[in-house]
Amino acid sequence: MNAIVTDKDTSSADLDRLAAIAEDVVRLARAKGASEADAAASVDLGLAVGVRLGEVETVERTRDRGVSVTVYFGKRKGSASTADLDPKSIEQTVEHACAIARHTEEDPANGLADPALLATTIPELDLWHPWDITPEEAIRLGIEIEEAGRSHDPRIDNSDGASVQVGASLTAYANTLGFVGTERGTSHTLSVALIAEDAAGMQRDYWYDSVRRASDFASAASIGRKAAERTVARLGARRLSTRDCPVLFVPEVARSLVGHFLSAASGGALYRRASFLVDHVGKALFPRWMQIVERPHIPRGHGSTAFDSEGVATRDSDLVRDGVLARYILGSYSARKLGLQSTGNAGGVQNIVVQPGSDDLPALLRRMGTGLLVTELMGQGVSLVTGDYSRGATGFWVENGEIAYPVEEITIAGNLRDMYANVVAVGRDVDPRSHILTGSILLERMTVAGE
């Protein structure tokens, strides 16, 4: 395959070449005896620039490409991949996959997706916006972001640096059912992390923006200033005594709560019976006013896609309706293990929208009254089997609806069942920088462990 050039947009022709490679791979697999096969061919392009204290630290261009193939001999499965697109390397990769399949045990759940579920139309989702920026321009932009933050307050005397990341991805998928699909998408990020110091010590914080189209970025200066404001606000942080109190998660942290729900509702955890949501479809999980919807076709959405990694068509679908778990999150394999049908989620979820309420963050603080505002989480103390939740946190103590002082070195604990059931409100301050779209989430009560 010819190299994808970066000085002009050749993505349409490159997608055609990737599709031809994927189709050739599945034909080759059939010729070697596979009863079914699928293949994906991809190219990822990137530019990453890092600056610190006004000086260039890193400039990196990447171009990763690869082919993966899965073959089935009846209900025996084998998979292999290669980063070499030379025809001989691809043929060897197919042979390796076939050899693996011939020596594995049969699994009745193995096989391609149901042909009736495959995508037949590919909507335009406005995901392709290459950013024509040179390394020199990216360096200047990174310096501008960092300088806006460093000059915002004299207490900011150091930096962990600013970064500019540019990304583009091309993918083609084909299988022996006759499905061929191609997708292209771009993703760009600006970020900066700053360090402030006063008599009480040092604090670090950051801010970033992530978009499909570079013209959608917040201004470089506003990203730097936001990082500076967050960093300075953490100066003088205290510890709390152990207590039970309401907890309010800001949007960029709240989406982790949604992420735990998505993991627990995913087929892999369910058929292994390693989730506290086993046999929970149709049962109340959240308050009755709570709605969570998957919307895969949002224009320029971070998780938008027309089909999943098996070619199954994606569609809008409720995950939580009136507080009740409406369905699980399934690809073909996990669906068969559970005696269900694929939900178009092979490879993961697409855009998840938590229906927002009417309150912004200040209104939610007033509604909470006295409690903890969480702005950052640390650690991985979450059990999907039991729902037990315990994570390190930093944020702010709130009294009478107003931020009183920053806090650190605390742990928040509870159980996800109780936490979800006791959601008080979801804010309208939705964070658009992720495929999980949620506002701030207020919980009625958690245990806060401190001194």
Defining traits:
globular, five-stranded mixed beta barrel, 17 strands, PmbA/TldD fold, alpha+beta, 36% strand, disordered N terminus, Metalloprtase-TldD/E_C, single chain, 451 residues, six-stranded antiparallel beta sheet, 2 domains
How would you describe what is shown here?
The chain has 451 residues and is α+β, with helices and mostly antiparallel strands. The protein has two domains: 221 residues, PmbA/TldD superfamily (PmbA/TldD fold, 2-Layer Sandwich), CATH 3.30.2290.10; 215 residues, no CATH class. Helix content is 24%, strand content 36%. It contains nine helices and 17 strands. The protein has a six-stranded antiparallel beta sheet. Helix 3 runs parallel beside helix 4. The chain starts with 10 loop residues before the first helix and ends with a strand.
